[in-house]
Amino acid sequence: MNRQTANIVVLGLALLSLALLWYVPGALAGALGLVGVVLAAYLRPSMSVRAGALALLALGFTLALSQVPRVNILFYGLVAVLVALITIPGVPRWIKALLGIAVLLVSVPIAGFNNTFFLELGIQIGIYAAMALGLNVVVGMAGLLDLGYAAFFAIGAYTWAIFGSPQAANFLSGSFPLPGNYFYLFMALAIITTAITGLLIGLPALRLRGDYLAIVTLGLGEVVRVLANNLDHPVNFTNGPQGITPVSRPDIGWFHSLMSSIGVELDARTDYQFFFYLLVLVIIGIVVLVNINLGNSRFGRAWIAIREDETAAKAMGIPMLGTKLLAFATGAAFSGAMGVIFAAQRTFVSPESFTLLASITILGMVVLGGMGSIPGVILGAAALTAINTDILKSFSEYLNNLRQAGVLSLPSQVEPAKYERLVFGVILVLMMIFRPQGLIPERRHQLEIEEAKEAQR
Amino acid sequence: MKRLGIVALGVFALGLASAQSNVIKIATQSPLSGGQAALGEQIKLGAQLAVEEAQARFQKLGFRLELAPYDDQANPDTGVANANRIINDPDILGVVGHLNSGVAIPSSEVYARVNLVMVSPANTNPRVTDRGLSNVNRICGRDDVQGPAGAEFAVKDLKAKRIFVIHDKTAYGQGLAENFRKRALALGAEIPNSAFVGTEEKSNFATLITQIQAFRPDLIYFGGIYDQVGPFAKQLRERGIRVPILGGDGLDASEYERLAGADAAKDTYFTTVAGPISQFPKAAKFAQDFRAKFGKNAEGFGVYAYDAANVIISAIETAIKQSGGKKPSRQLVAQRVRLVKLSGLTGEIEFNSKGDIKVADYFVIHLDTGKYAEQKLLKKVSIAAPR
Amino acid sequence: MLEGLVALLPQVIFDGLLLGFVYAMIALGYTMVYGVLELINFAHSEIFMIGAVVGVEVFRYLGPAIPNGIVVLLLALLLGAIISGLMAMVVERLAYRPLRARGTTNRLVPLITAIGVSFVLQDVVRFIEGLWHNEFKLQMRVIPPLDGNFTFLTVFVQYKALILILVSLLMLFGLNYLVNRTKLGTAIRAVAQDMSTARLMGINPDVIISRTFLIGGALGGVAGVLFAVQYSTIDPYVGFFPGLKAFTAAVLGGIGNITGAMVGGLVLGQLETLSGTYLPTLTGGNFGTEYKDVIAFLILILLLLFRPQGLLGQVVKEKV
């Protein structure tokens, strides 16, 4: 398809979708819009058409969401626009940034205020994306297979949960819970504690070869979970399986005033959700910056060298243990910080959130997106979180509606919402067999593959 | 992108699900899959029966009443995720749920954000209502009464001196076991630290059974759910240990008999906050309708879920009238629920200021032949909720 | 209570022996696959679980028809071995071989694939059982004479436990014979030692690898059937922990070493049962029974730190 045709098709589709989304908002219009985004990304129209189409579609989704807030596919349309912005080449950076910020700070909140589920989804995606970026440093860049990543998440979450709730009064004197604003301090503290834990675990573990490291980290992940579940006697540190609740949240009086001054009124339903949403955005921004800088630094290159061929890297004089430890500790630190946010946002923690499934899920996000690739990992996080939190359950609801309408009757053990493992498993296997470099491969992998293709010709 | 394909599946459902203003839904949250599904399914079905019986009345008021069941998989994360979906569906005016206290507690915090009322047919952990949330109520008893009730029965009626206590490390099981132990010790029973054990083991109880053998108890108390206690009982009996087992309402399911085998289920006692249907004279018709509609017997919490749903339904009806025939706000419904005075199938329902039912019944059941259907009611006590 | 527990030591050791044999048989599957492919076959724990499910279903359907427990058990073992073995071969063919063909040296990829397969199998079995019987927990109905028992020197011995020991020993000796005395065994050992040289010697590695999976899978299946008979309640996720511990056992004995896997399994079974029984009493209830799972991992970690080649393994130098 030549450029002219592509331009016409994409632009036409975008305009049509916009019209439908404004006048007949609903799932079908949303589907059409999604098709528009996909075509804008794949058909290679000219740069301005691309940018224009994406902007029109984003506008369309926003307008539709303000009218029918409960149609989830419209939200995914916005996510698709964001992903397209990250991945398509050619459009100047300032346009991408502007459009991206508009979607994140205008469209999503508009959708979210009418349906806080979107803010919740956004927050979950953000938390897992930040963690996946952390694991990306360990697995994606340095090639160290860590199957117990949820352990650091747990440590971060419990650090705040214990001190930000009456729990600490069980073994320390002093007034607990600490006031909510200690939350920020604890984020920094969690970074330090998890980094130190990462170092402690890494010191013995990282001397091992790949597979053994995987098993050891898996074992350690389980050990942390069992400890969280059992450290309620003799001294009650973690309150065992009952979990810790309620966990304090930071004060947001200042946030209320700030929002009012720009004309946004918050109520009990939306205030904390919106606050955490914005906080998570800020954190992801920081994490991405740190990742990019690390990736371009000599540490990043050292990690990639270790990942590609450890023996050669050793021969080149890269200090094995030190470099690996740095990767491990960095990854742990990200996880710890997100753990604190996780605990504060849900106001409760229980050991059940930190199982092997959680670790593997985060690993799946990295693998699905593309090991070592920052946009890829974010996409992977968005995709798996959306599947887990929303899509499977919506599918279940859909089947349930069918059953209530008398059309279909499945035994209750077969409802889709339980089959997340199946979905993850299939994704992992298919990705590894057919596209191990991920959905959005790291630059280096991309070059390798292109080189391999060249060589074959 | 491949995501499109997956999302397309949800398209039709979501597209069709636009909020019509004359639909009122009652949601249920309980485990509908996994090891505890037998108990959770009863909650859903009981509520479903109540909803279907009330549909005609609501039609006259101009509303369509529906049930929106959710599966919380006995997992707090899933419960909270479902809760977030529930609060964003403006048609849902009340929730019947949960089964597990560890799931109810965080989920109810989510409901509280929008004043969505929750009436629990089965959550027995005291913490559920002790937090004083105005939207949380329960029509069943509490573990700080059920546990001691079990202890009284164990020491006074079964004359047990040495008791080995096991729990399943959940909010429910551990809470119940701790309450039991406190009262049992106060009554003079012997339960040293080494005889108070928590375990998540589901298959291989050999090490636990050996400890029991060494301790030589008169009674084993297990705060847990049937999917764990059943296999435990089976392995225990296989070893030839015929010490009676006493448990809580987690054993109140015919699945217990299936998992343990009728022979091993013999000599099992349990306290429960959900009396057997035969106890409730008004429930005979309910039991018949239940069986006719769903093809299985009402057991466990089925009739309690029915009453819980009716509490919400009657509150909604009052609220509709108060709002002049329009769809009421969730806050109003929550207020009316707290003020409700209903003659339910399980007894008189009235809530105190914390949301506990004013007077709750506790039953002690004996499976003397091991068959669940032949259970014998040994005792029934009505106790006011603790302040 | 401590004296009572000490008096029960023979019982505890016997229980540990039973558990140990189960771990040993599962560990064999791990160690054989690792030997030829240097891959941790995460899916093996599900192969074990499939064996257990087959066992339950055989007893469910054939039990009423054939009143003799021994016969039903033999059929279950046979069917379990065949189905699990075939499943293992299918997994190898579909999920692992395409990766080998690509020739990547990246160790992450096959490992992640194995994890994915593991998850898929768990949920597929759950789905099948859900659709077929609408059950999540499957109950094994043991029939006479398997449910008999006797007491020997204070140890309570069930007939089914004896059968477990007997079958395990047979399988272990059989495997030993196969690996050390037959042509197939020699081929497997050759491929494990050096795949390219073996190929030069005229051995087709793909075929041998396939057979290795078959044998390992069959052993896992047998272990599954015996597990189901012994502990009687299973669900689709029952493979996870035993699989992990069996892998620990394989590493404990020296990964790649078959005798090591047997030894490792028995040792781990003993340690787990001993710690599970005595830990609570020794620590006054502070560290309960549930820490026994942690014991396995701690052993693994300590082992890998100080003696990564395991008890019976040899240190392998990594060549460039």
UniProtKB/TrEMBL annotation, chain A:
Signal peptide interval: none
Membrane topology: Multi-pass membrane protein
Compartments it resides in: Cell membrane
Short name of any one Pfam family annotated for the protein: BPD_transp_2
GO CC entries: plasma membrane
Keyword Transmembrane helix assigned: yes
GO molecular function list: branched-chain amino acid transmembrane transporter activity
Highest taxon, organism lineage: Bacteria
Residue ranges of the TM segments: 50-66, 73-91, 97-118, 130-163, 183-203, 210-228, 274-294, 325-344, 356-384
Major site of localization recorded for this protein: membrane
Keywords: Cell membrane, Membrane, Transmembrane, Transmembrane helix
Name of this protein: Urea ABC transporter, permease protein UrtC
Lineage, top ranks: Bacteria, Thermotogati, Deinococcota, Deinococci, Thermales
Automatic annotation (TrEMBL), chain B:
Pfam families cross-referenced by the UniProt entry: Peripla_BP_6
Keyword Signal: yes
InterPro entries: Leu-bd, Peripla_BP_I
Keyword list, A-Z: Signal
Location of the Leucine-binding protein domain: 24-369
Family of the protein in this entry: Belongs to the leucine-binding protein family.
Protein name: Leu/Ile/Val-binding protein
Organism: Calidithermus roseus
UniProtKB/TrEMBL annotation, chain C:
GO BP terms in the entry: D-alanine transmembrane transport; L-alanine transport; L-isoleucine import across plasma membrane
InterPro entries (UniProt xref): ABC_transp_permease, BCAA_transport_permease
Keyword Cell membrane: yes
Keywords: Amino-acid transport, Cell inner membrane, Cell membrane, Membrane, Transmembrane, Transmembrane helix, Transport
Localisation per UniProt entry: Cell membrane
Parts forming coiled coils: none
A GO term, aspect molecular function: L-valine transmembrane transporter activity
Topology within the bilayer: Multi-pass membrane protein
Entry keyword annotation includes tRNA processing: no
Transmembrane domains' residue ranges: 12-35, 69-96, 108-128, 159-179, 213-234, 246-268, 289-306
One cellular component (GO) term of this entry: plasma membrane
Family statement drawn from the similarity comment of this UniProt entry: Belongs to the binding-protein-dependent transport system permease family. LivHM subfamily.
Protein name: High-affinity branched-chain amino acid transport system permease protein LivH
Organism in which the protein naturally occurs: Calidithermus roseus
